[in-house]
Design goal:
The protein is of the alpha/beta class. About 40% of the residues lie in helices and about 15% in strands.
Length: about 130
Amino acid sequence: MNRIIIIFLIFIFSCDLLNPSEINIISESDFIELQDSDYTLIDVRTQDEFDLGHIDSAINLDFYSDSFQNDILSLPKNETIVIYCRTNNRSSKTAAILKENGYREILVIRGGITEWVKKGNDINYTTYSD
């Protein structure tokens, strides 16, 4: 009987090892090193927050919008996806949604845009022309 329990426990704990989806929390300096790699950068803050400053090349997908789930799940599953928000709350939740839906490589920038700015990195601003 003990053998069956041990085999069962090994099986349960090894299932996580077989799951290829990963969520990695990276520092802002780790993200800077990715600049020559292929990835999709997603800012999950609101449009107003995005307009106040965002990381260059970021795509804004508002976590609170009605279409968010459809928008985020329309991203290609085979690409590296880097996510950030203001601090890490919305980006971590977004990463969990992606992982649950079979996305392979998910990176979250630790501390979000707050840490990015605190470390002295540049941000872009949305400009409107009439």
